[in-house]
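Section 3.1: Structural characterization of target chains.
Under the original work plan, the team committed to producing a structural model for every single-chain target entering the pipeline before any wet-lab resources were allocated. The record below documents one such target. The sequence was received from the expression subgroup and is listed exactly as submitted; it comprises 132 residues.
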Amino acid sequence: MIDFLSTAEPEDIFRAIGLCGFFLYVGVYAALCFRLVTGDCLSYFVGNTAAASLVLIGLSHEFNLASALIQVFWISIGIAAIVLRLVRRGSDRRAEDARARRVTPREARESRTAAEDPRRQAASGYPESVSA
């Protein structure tokens, strides 16, 4: 392997990078077909974006405008999808934290009623106010 890299021409290296992108495309698509990933998960978009980037690098030596435009489109859409999912993941976490801290209306009513009703305070045995 090291011997190959020492004697490889630049076009061979670019071709190998492009082929890695192809295999990554095929691998991500196979994972989608076999339901190892979903079309909405972050790893699907990361894989597609990485594959498009590798193919675009491979195209930099043997340029093809149509293929390059397709790869740029995939990279752009992939980055947008990744950012969207990361932002959504953060907002979902904040919403879950807020739900965990949220007091139900019944609990709020009961705590307000207990605080406002002097009979409940007197029945509890605790003084209404404690002076320091």
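The mean pLDDT is 83.
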